[in-house]
Structures are given as structure tokens and as C-alpha cells.
Amino acid sequence: MQIVVFEQNGSGREKIDGIGRFGRGIEISRIVRIDEALPDFIDEPEVYIEDDFSADLVLDYLTHPDLSHYLVSLCVRKGIPVIASGRKSEGALTPFTCCGLGRHQNLGPYGEQFGLPEYRVQLEENRIVGLEVLRGAPCGATWDVLSQVVGVEVDEALSLLPREIQYLCVANPSRFDPVSGKSPVHYAGHVHRAALQKGIDQARKEEKKGS
């Protein structure tokens, strides 16, 4: 799978790194970096974004709304799916955070491996002795917290994991969701806790079947 990333002033750095470390069957074939100072309004976004790219998926980490809007319109014309987390756009997939992306059929290996987190949990006497990431955040936080949680009792793990995720989260904490009242950082902690709880429930269910 070929992915093209558009970023501005390092806005996609951690996700690019995480995809490189944990992605399988995925190649970031091109990174378009826009690092210069920009005006508040951009009348000619094509000056900054050329239309000479092709990909199976585009990741939009641009922070300037005019550039992001133009990029999405380009991708729509090219028939390339684009993920623009935290944006509002009819032409793109726009989860609240990168770790809030649901499953979509046209996202290939990226959609299988990155988005709303999923864990497989192994328990022994109410203690987490094994933890495998089935799907996680492209920034890599879902994987990076594993060593903190394995060996910990369930109740402690359910408070420890989301806290550690929030420490690692690189989203803008000041951008609140008006519906949930959560910032992206809080949201990231919430979805990871929910994923861990689901994994624990599944592990307990399998334990009962085996007993």
C-alpha cells in the first residue's frame, strides 16, 4: 500500500514514525513538507500543493485550513481516499483524533492496522500477563505503553493505561469536542481504556469457556 503524507512544520512527525515502526505492508512513498511561514488566507493553494501525486491513501496533517481544503478537493478529483483527523470536510474521513478512525473498507492495510485501538489480553489471576495490539494509533502510543501495563492488576491497568496514553498523545489538548466535552488528549485516553476493557472482558469470557 502506497501512502502520501502532507504535513506542515512537523505536524505529522510522530505519525510518520509510528507508521514506519508498526505498519506492515505499508509504504510511505512520499512526504510533502510545507515548513514556510504562511499568510492567514491562501488564495492560490496550488502554489504550495502540486497535483503530481498518486497513492492508495493520503494522510492530511496540514494545519492551514485553506491548504487542507485544497488537498482534499484534489484527492476527491483523483479518487484517492484521504484522512484528515480533526477537520470538517465532506470529501475526507475526519475522525476526532487519529486513534478515533473506525473501520472502512477502502483503507486497505492502513485501515486494518491503524485507528480505534484493539487489544488482545491474556490474564492470570486478575493480572495482565500478555497484551497484544491488534489495531492502534498511528503515533505508536498504543504499542509504546505495553511495557507499562503488562504485569499489572486489572483495576490498576485500567487507570494506568489511559494516563500513559495521554502523556504520549501529540494532539492539541485545547481543541475540545463540543458534543463530548473532551479534548483530543482525553479522548485518546478514553478510547484506549475502552479497548483495554473490551480485551479484558473477552479474556475473562474465554477463561470461563475453558474452565
What can you tell me about this protein's structure?
With 211 residues, this protein is α/β, with parallel strands linked by helices. It has two domains: 2-94, 3-Layer(aba) Sandwich (Rossmann fold); 118-210, Sufe protein. Chain: A (Alpha-Beta Complex), CATH 3.90.1010. Helices cover 38% and strands 18% of the residues. It is built from seven helices and six strands, in the order βαββαβαββαααα. It has a four-stranded parallel beta sheet with strand order 2-1-3-4, with helices on both faces. It has a two-stranded antiparallel ribbon with strand order 5-6. A hairpin with a 2-residue loop joins strand 5 and strand 6. It starts with a strand and ends with a helix. The model has no long low-confidence stretch (mean pLDDT 94). InterPro entries: DUF166. Pfam families: DUF166 (PF02593).
Q: What do we call the CATH topology of the largest domain?
A: Rossmann fold
Cα-atom Rg, whole angstroms? Answer: 19 Å
Mean of residue pLDDT? 94
Structural class: alpha/beta
InterPro entries: DUF166
SSE order and pairing:
Blueprint: E1 2-8, H1 13-22, E2 27-34, E3 57-61, H2 65-78, E4 82-83, H3 108-113, E5 118-124, E6 127-135, H4 141-144, H5 146-149, H6 154-168, H7 184-210
Parallel strand pairs: 1-2, 1-3, 3-4
Antiparallel strand pairs: 5-6
Helix pairs in contact: 6-7
Observed structural traits:
211 residues, Rossmann fold, Sufe protein. Chain: A, 2 domains, two-stranded antiparallel ribbon, 6 strands, elongated, DUF166
Brief synopsis:
The chain is of the alpha/beta class and 211 residues long.
